[in-house]
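Human: Here is a favour to ask of a fellow structure person. Comparing notes only helps if you start from a blank page. I am asking you to supply a protein in sequence and structure-token form. Write it directly below this note and I will take it from there.

Assistant:
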Amino acid sequence: MHPMPNVEAYACFPKVIARGIAGKTKRWIQKVPALEFAVGEEAVSRSELERYLRKPKAAFVRHGSNHDIWESAEGDRESQIPRHQEIKKNTARRICDDLGVPRHPSL
């Protein structure tokens, strides 16, 4: 049986931890504390982002299976918003860019 790898050394690489290090089984992953976000990344609440988008800049279209679909005021651009309580700031920036909406100052 292989010893459990040093997880602290890989804490900044959540994908490495999720896949297992050097082909080890995933049994030891449950012992790793949950990593909420990648290093240095913050989040914005979904309700705050939707409130910002609802101003005359974008409109809700429909519910998808895991995302909500929004379109720009002109109707020529479309984007998906994940249904999470918090959305990473990089994702929120990308949503604003996709819809042609100026980025919120907090992003």
